[in-house]
Amino acid sequence: MRLSDNPAFAAAAAKGPVLALYILDDETPASWSWGGASRWWLHHSLENLAQKIPLILRRGKADTVIASLLQETEIQSVHFTRDYAPWSGALEKRIKENCEKHNTPCHRYGGFLLHEPESIRNGAGGPYKVYTPFSRACFAAGEPRTPKPVPQFEYAANTLKSDHIEEWKLLPTKPNWAAGIAANWQPGEQGAQINLENFTADALANYAEGRDRTDQALTSRLSPHLHWGEISPHQIWHTTRSAMARAGGALDRSGEKFLQEILWREFSYHLLHHFPDFPDQPFKPEYTDFPWVDDEAALKCWQRGETGYPIVDAGMRELWHTGIMHNRARMITASFLIKDLLIPWQHGERWFWDSLVDADIGANSASWQWVAGCGADASPFYRVFNPMLQGEKFDPDGAYVKKWVPELRDVPKEFIHCPWDMPSPPKLYPKRMVDHAMARDRALAAFKLIKKELP
């Protein structure tokens, strides 16, 4: 969704006049087709891109649509950016085969990641399964390539039929639940560059110390732009390095920490490429027999931000209102669902998939498995987040809670993360679904049932 630093687009532009095609393919991903928040972002991102280059919009299976276009017009070559979703390899193979039938060269490029999955290997030649040595290998591989500007290009005149984006009905109407998302985001390449500039200028200096503070605006807000390809990781990497160089060492600690987070995204996609069952199946198969609880009512309370635990509810309501959630809050809310409620991590993963504007199949699945203790290099299952202590540490004055949970705006600071301890608890705020201490003991008891099978 960008024209700058886009190897596929640059290569096509170098060949001659270009046609820009976007295919909305809900069939190939099946149950992993875009969720509601993603569709809102997609609509606006496409509108933004169409202001820079005319778009042909088609809906259907991507390989079938491309095969049809190869018959409709004299296409000289096909260029696209590589994807890493579980279905992408087979899809790209079918596209190439269709192109070969029409004697049309088909070219695939990187651009979504800094390092292709085949390029970073451990000493035995296999994929890394632990993040720290993976990140060291990435740093040792040298600096990523320098980003490229928008190339000179000519758009090919054509009479091809294009869908109208309104026909796709990507935007919610009755009700329009996306008003808060619209107020918080500017989809598109320009919005991505603005967020990058603002982050490196205003927030990067305090990122290392403050990135976990839910009450402070110290995160990059780049994840949806990265997910949608409106900015490349190379652009983020080199802009960060440039800011570090200008600061003469003052930004080194925070800059390195931020680059490590970019590499966590990278690690997630390398895992997804090598282990395509990652979104659905626990990486550690022993967790397949974990004694989960099937509780639809409890799941709905969690989804609505009505658990009775302020920091959890604040995170869930922020997600619903803005289409994103602070990273620390993501870990807290995920831990609560998995360990306090014993609800399968896949249920939370699916809710995030539908609700996040940065619903990224690599990072989403890897992060949920990390919290659940069943992923690669995961946090141990017995590390159960205490929502009260997490709130006190990462929202010490309760500003984050009070912003998203209006029922608690008049609660004194000493009770903001445990309102049930007040002499007169707020009447409009839900009671705790579970007692955390009891829930922790229950989670550890469930873990013991499979512990004998764990390595």
State the CATH class of the largest domain: Mainly Alpha
Shape annotation: globular
Number of E strands: 4
The proportion of strand residues reads under 5%
What's the number of domains?
3
> Uncertain spans, ≥5 residues at pLDDT below 50?
none
Descriptive account of the structure:
- The protein has 19 helices and 4 strands.
- The protein has 3 domains: 7-111, 3-Layer(aba) Sandwich (Rossmann fold), CATH 3.40.50.620; 117-146 and 186-274, Serine Threonine Protein Phosphatase 5, Tetratricopeptide repeat; 285-450, DNA Cyclobutane Dipyrimidine Photolyase, subunit A, domain 3 (Orthogonal Bundle), CATH 1.10.579.
- Helix 15 (345-355) packs antiparallel against helix 16 (361-372).
- A two-stranded parallel ribbon has the order 1-2. The chain has a two-stranded parallel sheet with strand order 3-4.
- It is mostly helical and 455 residues long.
- Helix 2 links the parallel strand 1 (20-24) and strand 2.
Short account of what is shown:
This protein is mostly helical and 455 residues long.
List the helices and strands and how they pair.
Layout (H helix, E strand, L loop, with lengths): L6 H9 L4 E5 L11 H15 L4 E5 L2 H11 L5 E4 L6 H14 L4 E4 L21 H10 L38 H6 L4 H15 L3 H4 L12 H5 L5 H14 L5 H23 L21 H9 L5 H13 L4 H14 L4 H11 L5 H12 L14 H8 L4 H6 L31 H16 L4
Parallel strand pairs: 1-2, 3-4
Helix pairs in contact: 3-4, 5-11, 7-10, 10-11, 11-16, 13-14, 14-16, 15-16
